[in-house]
Amino acid sequence: MSQTRSDAEDLDGAPQAVEPQDAAERTKATSRKAAKDAKKDRASAGRPAKKAAPRKKRTSPTLFYRQIVAELRKVVWPTRTELFTYTSVVIVFVLCIIGIVALIDFGLTRAVQAVFG
Questions:
Q1: Concatenated DSSP letters of 24-41
Q2: Residue 41: its pLDDT value, please?
Q3: Are the C-beta atoms of residues 21 and 1 closer than 8 Å to each other?
């Protein structure tokens, strides 16, 4: 089976994995993988097993609380005027979006009623 460039390569030119088409090709691919795995197992049989990484010690609740307080001290809190300004901007923005959605809803309702009676 011949492959064209579009079958074997991605749009950026990187080669893609091509799926085997029939059961015989899938069987060959599976047996090759099994042989490769068996070879890897025989090669690693003489080596000592790798040790698992040591587990990290858990953080105590008091240390966790102290870390939270330390992080909160780093926060730059807004002043009262900044807080009022930001809140006002958010409320005005939300009201504008509500108005836009309401107008679209009203328009679509009228259009559907005009079409379907």
A1: HHHHHHHHHHHHHHHHHH
A2: 65
A3: yes
Range of 105's domain? 79-117
- For residue 111, count other CB atoms closer than 10 A to its CB: 10
pLDDT < 70 stretches in the chain: 1-26, 28-29, 38-50
Percent of the chain with pLDDT strictly greater than 70: 63
pTM for this entry: 0.42
Residues 16 and 9 sit within 8 Å (Cβ to Cβ):
yes
Residue 7 belongs to a domain: no
